């Protein structure tokens, strides 16, 4: 353990030891050149494909390294974690391979698909307990069990052994290319990956700029670094669940505030665009957190021209039931999906007039919810319209106003939007 002003930093020898430890379970994932992104950004864009791990995320590295480090007494007492995502799968598989009993606490609303996935990896070595409505409820129940039964809590990010396990990704990247790396983009949730990877690069490739990427709706590391203290957010947008935390780790914050070149936040809608592009154009399936690093490239387009750039694709545990929401968010971000309150005159032919005279030739109605008549002259409906081009919006609004159909525009009224749509 290195020290800088009493701050823990992963020791390079410990990271190399972790790499040996996890060989039996963690794949050396490809560092693949992306022809499409390289052409788009006039740079050499490489993708570190952690989505191709057996549990489809890098989380197996830290979980296995931590659980492997337990003493015989700790191992016999068993382990506990709280997670509804990739960490739970990493812990489950580690328990089965190391023959250690584990209890995994998950919020009660966790989709059954995720519960079954964890059961598959852990088999008879894990018990799953569905507790409470939120992650915080599951976390508190997990900590209570640790205290009562002297079990070891396997933290998803705020633990030296977990950080050292995640840091092994950096060793692989540096072994997989002989060219100097100018930038590495990594998703930041609790900060375990960022803390581990950035420490290795600082020692072995100090000129590389490490860029941490957070969801716009959950900027916990960004805010903490700005405040120069670990800061818990009051509210977060949970859509990018693999990287949405209210508070990053104390250990990871101390490391990241020193090591990271910059933090950037990316709108959730932009991430959804990236997910769809990767699937439709590259046949790559990623979860929202897995698309964060690539989504940041647009915001660094000028800086990375002619550079060697690595994006860590952190995971691919995407729930297919979220596809419609992903498409919706992508269209909203691109200004191609718009919702209105439309006032329909209470006369025959009003709807036909709206379709023929108001909508453009390439506009589609994708949502229509008619309300009760509000008066004798007009009845309101919430109407969703998908455009071919973002430039078609203002002409559409002008036509609605000219024909007295316009009631209100909902996209920029989030509270009303959530209530009505």
Task: Provide a descriptive summary of the structure in words.
With 421 residues, this protein is α/β, with parallel strands linked by helices. It is built from 17 helices and 16 strands. The protein has a six-stranded mixed β-sheet with strand order 3-4-12-9-10-11, with helices on both faces. Helix 1 crosses helix 8, helix 5 runs parallel beside helix 6 and helix 8 packs across helix 9. The relative contact order is 0.11. This is L-threonine dehydratase. Its EC number is 4.3.1.19. Homotetramer.
Q: Keywords, please?
A:
421 residues, alpha/beta, four-stranded parallel sheet, 17 helices, 42% helix, 20% strand, isoleucine biosynthesis, amino-acid biosynthesis, branched-chain amino acid biosynthesis
Strand content: 15-25%
Strand order of the largest sheet: 3-4-12-9-10-11
* Beginning-to-end CA distance, first to last residue: 53 Å
Question: Main β-sheet, in a few words?
Answer: 6 strands, mixed
Overall 3D shape: globular
Total of helices: 17
GO molecular function: threonine deaminase activity
Keywords: Amino-acid biosynthesis, Branched-chain amino acid biosynthesis, Isoleucine biosynthesis, Lyase, Pyridoxal phosphate
Organism: Thalassobellus suaedae
Protein name: L-threonine dehydratase
